[in-house]
Amino acid sequence: MAAIRRPARAVLAGAGAFALIATASPAIAGPADPSDLPAYSTQLDRPQTTDSAFVTECSEEPRDLPINEFTDHRELGVELDRIERNSDGRVDVEQVGMSNRGREIWSARVGTGPKAVLITSEIHGNEKTGTDAILDLLDWLSTSDSAKAKRWLKELTIVAVPKMNPDGAELDRRGNDMTWEEVTARFPQLRGSEPAWNYYTGSLQGDDYSDRPGFDTNRDYHPDLNYVPRAEDFPGTSEDTGWYITPESRTVRDVYRGLTAEFGEVDVYVDLHHQGACYVMPDDPDEFVTLSISGKFVDDPATMPGYEQYAANYDLDHSKRLNVAVYNALQGAANNRPLFGNVTLYPQDTNLPGTGLGSFALNGSGTVLFEVRGQTQTLGQQYRAVLTRAVYIGLDGMLSAVASGRVDKLDPADYDAIPPRGPSIGSDASQERKAASQQ
Ligand SMILES: [Zn+2]
């Protein structure tokens, strides 16, 4: 399969790029094998003076907050290029698709192992820490000579698609940037249909979509990876499958389908999100949730009419074990920095087969959802470093458990014992905003 190569880029500009590179450079090797850790982790893994405000203060009011320290689309291209060039052939970066507005969607592949792991971030463009966590992970894995890195490279094939909705990311909003007219131009069979239910044309999370409508790309998936949009399936609902009408979901579907053909199945699929800023711990309403996780997104296909064909491959216990590995890693980190321990289970009563996680779970992948606290319009980049680190710690623990095979010995019952997410006490937020801030 011919890959479209990105042109090499050498020029860096903008505070964001410099900030990222300054914090994410590979560590200089020393006696304690610091190549196992990003250079800044020794600070981030210890309590900071801002931690008490982090766990006790919150607002859901949309504000115009800075995001320039996050990695934007151009900086992502620069960083991926740098990581690939410095990796001595370990990391392969390809352009795998293009957004509706013509921005490159890249994948980074590393490792030669038999277990395929797909990781995506920023399907919602105002949920940005996942992209930075992926870059930190690639940065470490591309150069580390540690035994851990060698095991990962031997056992895993990791394919990351960071910032999969670059148009939404550049606008710092949830939806992509695409009109229904552009959809029907591409799929003429949909002319005359009602637009998809997840088409945003009004106000959402403080963003005005009336001039630049868009879709929630994370409701545009279908477990039938060969599905072609049909007029009778519109407008659909949140409990229905999606349609692959957005180029962003089609790109990830194509990557997933390619990995399925190559490996038989994708062992793990991880999708990195943010949730509302004001969810509290269930047993301590004075402390906010740092991160919610989940492995369950759809009802049991054996009991869902029309989904029976997915029952044989669906493996909820595998997803539960993966999430237990994430949880355990963060509880371990909480020994040094307690806010990493504020991890809860995302609501388990969701039935969303149109999400990437739902569709790929139905195809047999173990699935992991990360929902770190606060979107950019509520927290901005205020806690970017610690939230990115929380994602990193969870990913690192989970991937280590998969690479070693230890994950198979974990008990799915431990997943059910993870504390449920408490209520959101951002009381002045509208119901619409609360609903939209979930996943
Ligand atoms: Zn999200």
UniProtKB/TrEMBL annotation:
InterPro entries: Peptidase_M14
Keywords: Hydrolase, Metalloprotease, Protease, Signal, Zinc
Region (Disordered): 411-439
GO CC terms, sorted: extracellular space
A Pfam family annotated for this UniProt entry: Peptidase_M14
SMART domains for this protein: Zn_pept (SM00631)
Gene Ontology MF terms: metallocarboxypeptidase activity; zinc ion binding
Signal peptide stretch: 1-29
UniProt feature, compositional bias: Basic and acidic residues: 430-439
Named cofactor requirement(s): Zn(2+)
Keyword Zinc found: yes
Peptidase M14 domain ranges (all copies): 69-439
PROSITE patterns: PEPTIDASE_M14
GO biological process: proteolysis
Record-stated family: Belongs to the peptidase M14 family.
Record's protein name: Putative deacylase
Origin species: Saccharomonospora cyanea NA-134
Phylogenetic classification of the source organism: Bacteria, Bacillati, Actinomycetota, Actinomycetes, Pseudonocardiales
